[in-house]
Amino acid sequence: MFHMKKVIIITYWALAVLLISLIVLSLGYTFSESLFIGAVFLPGVFFSIYFPERISRQGSVRDIIFAMSGTIVAEIFLILSAHFVILEMRNDFTSVGIDYFDLPGILVNPVFIMVLISAFAAGNFFIWRWLDRKYPSEDSKVTFVSERHRISLAKRDIIYVESNDTQTFVVGSDGKRYRNRTPISQWENLLGKHFVRIHRSYLVRRESVNEVRGDSVYVTGGAVLPLSRGYKDQAVGELLTDAAHHG
């Protein structure tokens, strides 16, 4: 499963570089030069994927804007450097018969750079969401808002999800209860096969179940959750098997 995820992600980024290279190719570069410049865009894309969320935990929106502005400036510097290297290589291999040419303005256009970075960062986001649904893993994290704070929890660190009217509570292995407004049906789709619905108001992580007794489910941390008749036939077999393994 992990191997398949890795292959898909590598393929996505290889295609991303190829697509950027085809755009650059139309600006007068050779194919190998276009691949070089296409690869130069990757640092900016990776920065835009991984750093804004970390910055937002301690900083403000202004900090994110400054970080993204710095990313664009850094990308312009990398593109200029790549163009300089290409010209130096052409100077060394004058037999190729290619004249010097000015750097295409679009390559250092901040809007163009931002659009490319945002497009591939968004593609990365959606492809990871698809992979998490198709190949669910307990090590993957879910991110949600609780009490106006952005929370990220690994699936294995969630014991159960409880729905209470218009509110939902995510109960972690550390005993904390995170209030959220995402409906439990959406949580069921988000958390995947490692969790099972035992009641219209409860979704439990299978590995956290210690015992199933009558209409009650005993989970890690000492909580006792109701097992409703409507979900019993569907869930009890899996839960009993998991509880037996734990025993």
What letter string, H or E per element, gives the SSE order?
HHHHHEEEEEHEEEEEH
Count of individual helical segments: 7
What's the mean pLDDT score? 81
Main pleated sheet: 5 strands, antiparallel
Percent of residues in helices: 40-55%
What does this structure look like?
With 247 residues, the chain is of the alpha+beta class. It folds into 2 domains: 133 residues, no CATH class; 94 residues, OB fold (Dihydrolipoamide Acetyltransferase, E2P) (Beta Barrel). The chain has 7 helices and 10 strands. The strands form 3 sheets. A 5-stranded antiparallel beta sheet has the order 5-4-3-7-6. A 3-stranded antiparallel beta sheet has the order 8-9-10. Strands 1-2 form a two-stranded antiparallel sheet. The C terminus is likely disordered.
Pick out its properties.
7 helices, 2 domains, alpha+beta, 5-stranded antiparallel β-sheet, 247 residues, single chain, OB fold (Dihydrolipoamide Acetyltransferase, E2P), elongated, 3-stranded antiparallel β-sheet
Question: SSE layout and pairings?
Answer:
Blueprint: H1 2-25, H2 31-40, H3 42-58, H4 61-92, H5 110-134, E1 141-146, E2 149-154, E3 158-164, E4 167-172, E5 177-180, H6 184-191, E6 195-199, E7 202-205, E8 209-213, E9 216-219, E10 224-226, H7 229-246
Antiparallel strand pairs: 1-2, 3-4, 3-7, 4-5, 6-7, 8-9, 9-10
Provide a short characterization of the protein structure:
The protein is built from 7 helices and 10 strands.
